[in-house]
């Protein structure tokens, strides 16, 4: 293999699915600094299983030091970027030769792995003690959580409220209908075209915007989270954000106008479904491109979006999938995702054992 010219400094901001893969790949060829407010990476598409089965989280919540032992882990939020440094909330200024931004979406989550595991246990305890559970939001998170609850606790009364006209609006109507039919067959009450004011609940009674009353002992908010780019709005990259708050990138995933800054995962403006497996592909491509730059090569590899695929699990055995223009439901998509939720595959990508 052709030797690298020198050990450059690569700063990766964000320890989610994209940032973690980039740190794993680059840690042995560069001086990598991974900046993340929490000490762990979480396999997020498995998190809803952890809500009803906390022991599952032992495999899905992984300390950054486990998969990137040669990287410098900086447990702090990034708050600014200059031409050669990233500043953190704790007051550090970390110099970079190459910068990879992978901050995805804003989310409030515990800083330590133990706190995260404790949260999952608390969620399960809350569900176990409840007669009725309210879920607000009919995207993939809300639909999968409803499915996990009714499969793990068949006697629970689950109500799902969604402000949109159909579930899973990010994919086709046929898949949405299949998901709705599956949930109603499992006695989930689905209320569409309405919202819920969670702050106005009284004695376990929630009011919808349509005037309906829902009785529930606990609730879960499963609506979309904002793009994690607010920290960039007063930075060097403020003019590189589009009207949705995403970083505009060139085909090689470099931020437009910046030769040594990349954006991967949900934070960039690539026109495709924002899926975890695609974020991993972004990370792999950018890692290869950074290696080329370190070697002094100018021609980088462009990103080419492949076949669009979405699989929404329905408990451990079933699911609904849309692959290109084909929609399917039942055991086949369940076999593709729902049993293991790609946890073994993801751990392998990070160089970890399946268990």
TrEMBL record:
The keyword Cell division does not apply. This is Oxidoreductase. Keywords: FAD, Flavoprotein, Oxidoreductase. Pfam families: Pyr_redox_2 (PF07992). GO terms for cellular component: cytoplasm. Putative FAD-dependent oxidoreductase. Signal peptide: none annotated. Residues 10-275 form the FAD/NAD(P)-binding domain. GO terms for molecular function: electron-transferring-flavoprotein dehydrogenase activity; flavin adenine dinucleotide binding. Belongs to the FAD-dependent oxidoreductase family. InterPro entries: FAD/NAD-bd_sf (IPR036188), FAD/NAD-binding_dom (IPR023753). It comes from Lithospermum erythrorhizon.
């Amino acid at each position: 293999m052709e030797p690298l010219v020198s050990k450059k400094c690569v700063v990766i901001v964000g320890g989610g699915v994209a940032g973690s893969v980039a740190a794993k790949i680059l840690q042995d060829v560069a001086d990598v600094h991974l900046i993340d407010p929490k000490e762990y990476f979480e396999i997020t598409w498995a998190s809803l299983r952890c809500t009803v089965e906390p022991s599952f989280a032992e495999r899905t919540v992984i300390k950054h030091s486990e998969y990137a032992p040669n990287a410098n882990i900086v447990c702090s939020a990034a708050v600014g970027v200059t031409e050669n440094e990233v500043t953190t909330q704790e007051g550090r200024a970390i110099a970079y030769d190459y910068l990879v931004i992978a901050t995805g979406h804003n989310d409030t989550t515990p800083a330590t792995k133990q706190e995260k595991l404790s949260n999952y246990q608390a969620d399960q305890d809350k569900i176990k003690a409840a007669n009725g559970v309210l879920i607000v939001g009919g995207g993939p998170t809300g639909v999968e959580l409803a499915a996990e609850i009714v499969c793990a606790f068949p006697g629970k009364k689950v109500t799902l409220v969604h402000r949109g006209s159909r579930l899973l609006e990010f994919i086709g109507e046929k898949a949405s209908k299949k998901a709705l039919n599956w949930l109603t067959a499992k006695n989930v009450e689905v209320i569409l075209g309405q919202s819920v004011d969670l702050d106005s609940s009284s004695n376990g009674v929630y009011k919808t915007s349509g005037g309906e009353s829902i009785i529930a002992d606990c609730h879960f908010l499963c609506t979309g989270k904002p793009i994690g780019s607010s920290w960039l709005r007063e930075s060097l990259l403020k003019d590189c954000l589009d009207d949705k708050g995403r970083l505009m990138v060139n085909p090689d995933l470099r931020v437009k106008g910046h030769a040594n800054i990349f954006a991967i995962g949900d934070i960039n403006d690539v026109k495709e479904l924002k899926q975890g497996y695609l974020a991993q592909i972004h990370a792999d491509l950018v890692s290869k491109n950074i290696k080329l730059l370190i070697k002094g090569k100018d021609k980088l590899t462009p990103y080419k979006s492949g076949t669009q695929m979405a699989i929404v699990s329905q408990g451990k055995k079933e699911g609904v999938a849309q692959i290109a223009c084909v929609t399917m439901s039942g055991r086949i998509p369940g076999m593709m995702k729902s049993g293991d939720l790609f946890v073994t595959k993801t751990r392998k990508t990070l160089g970890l054992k399946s268990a």
